[in-house]
Amino acid sequence: MTQITARDCMTKKLVTLSPEMDVIDAVSKLLRNRISGAPVVDGDGYYLGVFSEKCSMHAILDAAYEQLPSTQVRAFMDTDAQTIEPETHLLSIAQVFLLTPFRRLPVLEDGKLVGQVSRRDVLRASLDLLRQSPSRNEGSTLLYLSALVERHESPLA
């Protein structure tokens, strides 16, 4: 069985922001699209960071105290957000989500944004994989997912 990678489950059509975009416009775009954050890319599609609800809170607090250094997204975006490559395996992605507070992982190829994987994408791909197989013992990925389910159902877990 082929292992599922980020390329297989990532969302390719993304709402993105530019670093020059006004923070108020960026927050409005997040709210309008009902998303909690969006990748920030330059004019050539190179990934620069993520602007999220949390970044928005920083902007609001800075504005409230009249110390707003800039009104551009670039001043508030998270440039340390973790990214992954298109060939990152599903289980590695799940582990990142389990061990970090990230809700989404931008997928980069040669520095350019090609997609994004969310926690929900990982859950959907995992369930699809489990549902496709009549036996939970097929394939290493499926075996591992089966072990997770069994561990979760065990009273000792």
Molecular structure report:
The protein is 41% helix and 15% strand. A hairpin with a 2-residue loop joins strand 3 (104-109) and strand 4. The chain has a single domain (6-153), classed as CBS-domain, CATH 3.10.580.10. Helix 4 (90-99) packs across helix 5. It contains 6 helices and 4 strands, in the order H-H-E-E-H-H-E-E-H-H. The protein has helices spanning 6-9, 23-32, 53-64, 90-99, 119-132, 140-153, and strands at residues 37-41, 47-52, 104-109, 112-118.
List keywords for this structure.
alpha+beta, 6 helices, 15% strand, 157 residues, CBS-domain, two-stranded antiparallel ribbon, elongated, two-stranded antiparallel sheet
